[in-house]
Amino acid sequence: IAQLDKRIENREWAPWCKPGTWIAVHAGKHYDADAALALRIDRGILAPSREESVQGAIVAVARYVGTVGEDCQDPWFVGPVGWRLADVTAIEPVACRGAQKLWHLPDDVLAQVRTAWAAARRQPQPQRIETADPSYPWKEQ
Predict the structure, then answer these.
(1) What would the pLDDT profile of 58-116 be if each residue is shown by its tens digit?
(2) Please, are residues 64 and 15 in contact by the beta-carbon 8 Å criterion?
(3) What is the layout of strands, in order, in the sheet containing 22-27?
(4) What is the rounded distance in angstroms from the CA atom of residue 110 to the CA atom of residue 132?
(5) What is the distance between the alpha carbons of residues 125 and 89, in angstroms, rounded to a whole number?
(6) SS (H, E, C) 35-92
(7) Cross-strand pairs, 10
(8) Are 92 and 8 in contact (CB under 8 A)?
(9) Which residues does residue 25 pair with via DSSP β-bridges, in sequence order?
(10) What is the spatial distance between Cα 3 and Cα 57, in angstroms, rounded to a whole number?
(11) Which candidate, 10, 25, 4, 6, places its Cα nearest to that of 68?
């Protein structure tokens, strides 16, 4: 979400927050090498390596705008429930312990995320979309 043009987050459940809610995007401590390999093989997308990836931190802020289901044609959707994200802004990582499902940020972390988000919004947002296949819908930028 923070490093590629992924705007669908796949889950087995719909979030409890209302569309329009701003959420912090947390990068967990586990790097999913199988998912990175699948992105490369199935979609030609070069995901950041383990070494390039931030872990255990808030890495972006996004607005949750609703859910999609099985009729969704977005190539990032694998279901069963896709959360649509908009206004994604990558931020300087803010260290934060994660939790399952949706959770509220501790006040000190929230303050740091707000500061990082404000700083990031003043900067142009580069898109890091790399593909091995030039015919894939997302071109290198």
Answers:
(1) 999 999 999 999 999 888 898 899 999 999 999 999 999 999 999 999 999 999 999 99
(2) yes
(3) 8-11, 81-95, 57-68, 22-27
(4) 37
(5) 7
(6) HHHHHHHHHCECCCCCCCCCCCEEEEEEEEEEEECCCCCCCCCCCCEEEEEEEEEEEE
(7) 82
(8) no
(9) 60
(10) 14
(11) 10
Give the up-direction half-sphere exposure of residue 34: CA atoms within 13 A in the CB hemisphere: 1
pLDDT in the model for residue 36 = 87
The tokens for 118 are 């404000």
Mean pLDDT of the chain: 86
The two structure tokens encoding residue 122:
């003043």
Nearest to 56 by CA among 31, 39, 23: 31
CB 31 within 8 A of CB 63: no
